[in-house]
Write a structure and sequence with these properties.
heterodimer; A: 120 residues; alpha/beta; Hypothetical Protein Aq_1857, Chain: A; B: 499 residues; Aldehyde Dehydrogenase, Chain A, domain 1; seven-stranded mixed β-sheet; globular; DUF779 (chain A); UDP-glucose 4-epimerase (chain A); Ald_DH_N (chain B); Aldehyde_DH_dom (chain B)
Chain lengths: 120, 499
Amino acid sequence: MTFKRVDITKEAAALLEELKAEHGEVIFHQSGGCCDGSSPMLLPKEDFYLDDNDIHLGEVENVPFYMSHDQFEYWKHTHLTVDITPGRGASFSLEIPKGKRFIIRSRMLTKEEQEHFNPS
Amino acid sequence: MSYSKPKFQEKYGNYINGAFVDPIDGEYFDNHSPVDNSLIAKFPRSKEADVKNAIAAANAAKEEWGNTSVTERSAILNKIADILEENLEEFAQIETSDNGKAIRETLNADLPLAVDHFRYFASVIRAEEGSASELNKNTLSLIIQEPLGVVAQIIPWNFPLLMMAWKVAPALAAGNCIILKPAEQTPASATIFAEKVGHLLPKGVLNVIHGFGPEAGKPLASSPDVDKVAFTGETTTGQLIMQYASKNLHPVTMELGGKSPNVFFSSIMDHDDEFLDKCIEGAVLFALNQGEVCTCPSRLLIQEDIYEAFIEKVIARTKAIKMGDPFSPDTMMGAQASSDQHEKILSYINIGKEEGAEVLCGGGAAKLDGDLGNGFYIEPTILKGHNKMRVFQEEIFGPVLAVCTFKDEAEALEIANDTLYGLGAGVWTRDAHQLYQIPRAIKAGRVWVNCYHDYPAHAPFGGYKKSGFGRENHLMMLNHYRQAKNMLISYDKNKLGFF
């Protein structure tokens, strides 16, 4: 059985494919803080500096999903699904011009997932 | 007096070099009102070429504007304040229409604070002095502040006009030219501002450009021809803007939000008096501006021996919040700013429930009647849980309060500081020792003591930790928009003697 920390809905995947075709290699980085914080940002891969302070949670549609380590400490017990909603978000995320916004839907990890990802 | 959505033009241009101009490629985006999802107007979907024009206009104007006297700049800032004040009700209705917040807040907070902000910076630059130090009998060091030149300002949608004032007033006061990019959800008030006050400023001093982050924000933030970027928003974009600025070695200031603790000690309940009444309101201030405030007191920490008695009063006061038409003067809480925010807030309430938080009140979308049914409303919600839950750690930016208890001062501080952010905090007590010691031990830039959500000019505002850096709302912001020029003058007629 394979476990994933992050998934994507069909609708979000379709938009992601469209954006990949337009922008080339992209990454997701989960934001925090004010305004459009707490939303995932889709950015051109070469634009965003990643290092050991970021953790790679997995891939959706071959797009890597990252979050800063300190933020992940508070998120690690949850499973994330990238979804899409109509809306006029701010920020530099690449889907904004489409009038759509990626959002995160979360659920608790199952017991099996918890044992796999966060063994005590 | 009744209030309503003001009349807007069908579409607006960018304000560049003293005039409204169409976007070069002719593209616009629709801006909808969160009150009822109706169309407000079309605004330019600007691209790099538009941004470059604005930057060029600002650069052409900077020399002359940077050399105006403080007397002139101060007089202009005062005139701007007067025009805002004369049109206060119109601007308040624009803000309510564009952002969704209740008219009683725009009339009584957003607008009066914005007016005062321009007057504050008009005043302080008249009273400022540089410095002169006689380093020895022949050497004089003069420090003179000079404007940076051209500054880019990217502002958020939660207080569109007030955040504009926080950015624009000090930058103009310091003698800079500006390219302002309002948030794409709330482009209206900055546009009408430019329309009404633009003529007071020389061409190119104030430029307002609309568009989306990746298309207009990025070329603005990464331009080698702006001298500084000021940003209010979230952390990932904050990092990105700092990266762009780092390529040019340009300074930045960042205000990136928080997850502010609001701490109530036992002594508040020693008496049933007006102060206790103030404390209850202080806890319910999480609902101000629908929770869309960087300093929203979204974590409520209550000392355990008063928890039951106090939370009962807080729940009752929260349930008394009147939702309804944001234009109605008795509406206490309006619409969330956009549909995606609405969705995000609901998803957070959901994960809070899954994490085991207990819903004490609210807990879902609010369904309003008529046209308002198309708007984006959330019930004020209180969740009881513990500080490791995500609803205690992430900025939901909605009317969602996460409450937990603490047993003593040490635990209160441990919980209060267990956050990635450090923008605001509240401390409520009748104990004179706690009044001083607890705020000093909280790692946040602004700690309100026996009050909350007060933003008078001359009280500096800014973050610790991931909440960013820079201090707005105070004359110290002037130096974030200036260089310090040091003239080192010798009165010695004799050479050093080395050569």
